[in-house]
Amino acid sequence: DELEVDIALLGKFSGPRDEQRRLSDSIREQQRTAERLIERLQLVVEDYDVEQQQIKIQARVQEQEQRAKQQQRSFRSALLKYRGNVEALAKKERELLLSGAATPAELRRRKARTGNAALNAASDVTTALQETVSMMNEEIDKSVSNIMAMEDSSEKLRKTKAQYIAMDDILKLSKNLIRTLEQADVLDRWLMLAGLVLFSLVAFNILRKRVWIPGLYTLFRILRYL
Question: What span, in angstroms and rounded, lies between the C-alpha atoms of 83 and 162?
Fold first, then answer.
């Protein structure tokens, strides 16, 4: 992890305080970037409808949060180590000056080389981290786009299902109506037939009384006895 490399570099750093502040500011900026990524991941978790995916991303969020806390502790420890390094370096420089093993100019050049090397390394690490953050942002954006597409598809499926259910209800209602009409039609046929028979009997009875037909009276008597 680039941030951990920067923190480790700060723990070994013993250059000027201005350069240490630049390195510390770079670490803090990386930590803020990591926190923003965690917040985005938390938002992505809320957008997922599938419980298994939520559990998976939530576990990743918790892992990143634990790492961020550990890096914060490491950063504080690195700051303490830096103070110890500065004190140890100052003590060593005093010993070198007192012993005559080095001149003040040589000590300044040595500090400059050490500080530049550390800052160059920190700059390279920061650039790499920025590229990594950019890639992670792109992946998160893709995940959000996929979630939105899935939600849109789910909404369309829900609407289609509702339409099919409505059509099925209409078909059932139409089927019941047709069955009722068919039953009414059969009943109407029977009523018409019964009316026709009744009309025929009435008409026949009227004719029987008004018109004399040979043998008809005898036929009725026979039918009555039967």
Answer: 69
User: What global pTM score does this model have?
Assistant: 0.39
- 3-state DSSP of the chain: CHHHHHHHHHHHCCCCHHHHHHHHHHHHHHHHHHHHHHHHHHHHHHHCCCHHHHHHHHHHHHHHHHHHHHHHHHHHHHHHHHHHHHHHHHHHHHHHHHHCCCCHHHHHHHHHHHHHHHHHHHHHHHHHHHHHHHHHHHHHHHHHHHHHHHHHHHHHHHHHHHHHHHHHHHHHHHHHHHHHHHHHHHHHHHHHHHHHHHHHHHHHHHHHHHCCCCCHHHHHHHHHHC
Q: What is the pLDDT of residues 9-28, one digit of tens each?
A: 777 776 777 777 787 788 78
Per-residue pLDDT of 106-146, as tens digits, reads 555 555 555 555 555 555 555 655 566 666 666 666 666 66
Asked whether the beta carbons of 2 and 126 are under 8 A apart, the reply is yes
Contact between 165 and 39 (Cβ < 8 Å): no
Q: Among 198, 204, 195, which residue's Cα sits nearest to residue 223?
A: 204
